[in-house]
Amino acid sequence: MKKSIIFSLTLLIIALSSCNKRGSDQKTSKPVIIAYVAGFHGQVDINKISANKITHINYAFVDVQDGKAFLTNEKTDTVNFRKLNGLKQQNPELKILISIGGWAWSKNFSDAVLTPERQQTFAQSAVDIMNKFDLDGIDIDWEYPAMEGDVGNIFRPEDKQNYTLMFAAIREKLDALEQETNKKYLLTTAVGGSLDFIKNTEMDKASQYLDYVNVMTYDSQSTTKAIHHTNLSPSDKYSPSNSAETAIKGYIEAGVPVQKLVMGIAFYGRIYKIKEGSEKGLGDPIVKQVEGKGYTYIKDSLVNKNEYFRYWDETAKAPYLYNFYKGIFVTYDDEEAVREKCKYVTNNGMGGVMFWEYSSDPKEYLLNAINEYLK
């Protein structure tokens, strides 16, 4: 009887060790630097990608159609995958993943993973694309489970559980392929930077199947007032104030291992027209949102130029521009904000950083700041 108990306990320990391994690998590794690259713009110019400054590329996006992962621009995507894999000549450790979904292509996720049979079909289709083009993993960007993202998206309460089951199905397929190829495949996800996303998912269960959880700590918006869209900490200039720190703490409390959490950095800014008569910009009423700009443009053309003056919100650890004369407010990440985020990542033992999107900062001002701190 005692031998039986000891044997059972030994099997339990081995099983637990195996389950926890996906989290243990990150503890001893350097912080990741994950770049989202927009393939939907057309052919990617790999000459503008510094392979040695990043650890992963998440290729955006693969669509979801008829219950399967689907390449809507396969001819272009095929060329892009080949060119991106060529970057491994510069950085043999670079990992290339397909990112499925995104803001515009998340409409059909809910239907695609509604039943166990559909989960298996969807998982196999995703793995087939990854394997066909000799890539290194799959990233899921479902915006959003059990909540409406883009107008017309399908969502239902069952998404909360099916989100987890989707990852379980994909991980099972990846594990089976690993046995055939003797190669490790990654499974990651991009998640909302709000507590509502956490409430509508089972992140403690889902994270068991994931290598990294990329928190989109940007795109905080208000329809009434000018606020930071990618601040590290809550601001005391307006209320309520979302922040990256609030989101990260929320995911930790929800059961996601901190070493799997990846901090989001915005390589673009959001621009707002402020209501006439406003004086300070931050926290003032807005009239409308203007088309955003990438950081290279913001730095070279706006910062302390043409009456766009830069300010620093010390409590939020975030910059902003305000043109009093034109009534224009700009919220963005800059080098100082990036250093604060990287400092938070290292001080708290997070997995690393990711950013959206590479082409928004072609001069690599922010990527250089990331490398200076993390490497």
How does this model look, in words?
There is one protein chain. It is built from eleven helices and 14 strands. By secondary structure, it is of the alpha/beta class. It has one domain (22-266, 334-374): Glycosidases (TIM Barrel, Alpha-Beta Barrel), CATH 3.20.20. Strands 1-2-4-5-6-7-8-14 form an eight-stranded parallel beta barrel, surrounded by five helices. Strands 10-9-13-12-11 form a five-stranded antiparallel sheet. The longest helix is centred in the N-terminal third of the chain and has 23 residues, at 2-24. It is globular and about 65 Å long. The termini are far apart.
CATH superfamily: Glycosidases
- Approximately how much beta-strand content do the residues carry? 15-25%
Biggest sheet: strands, sense, closure? 8 strands, parallel, barrel
Please work out how many helical segments DSSP would assign.
Answer: 11
State the CATH architecture.
Alpha-Beta Barrel
Please give the oligomerization state of what you see.
single chain
CATH-defined topology? TIM Barrel
The rounded Rg comes to: 21 Å
Number of domains: 1
Structural class: alpha/beta
What is the 3D form? globular
Reconstruct the topology from this structure.
Elements: H1 2-24, E1 32-38, E2 56-65, E3 68-70, H2 74-86, E4 95-101, H3 109-112, H4 116-132, E5 137-141, H5 159-181, E6 186-192, H6 195-199, H7 203-206, E7 212-216, H8 244-253, E8 261-266, E9 268-274, E10 286-294, H9 295-302, E11 309-313, E12 318-323, E13 328-331, H10 335-347, E14 352-356, H11 365-374
Parallel strand pairs: 1-2, 1-14, 2-4, 4-5, 5-6, 6-7, 7-8, 8-14
Antiparallel strand pairs: 2-3, 9-10, 9-13, 11-12, 12-13
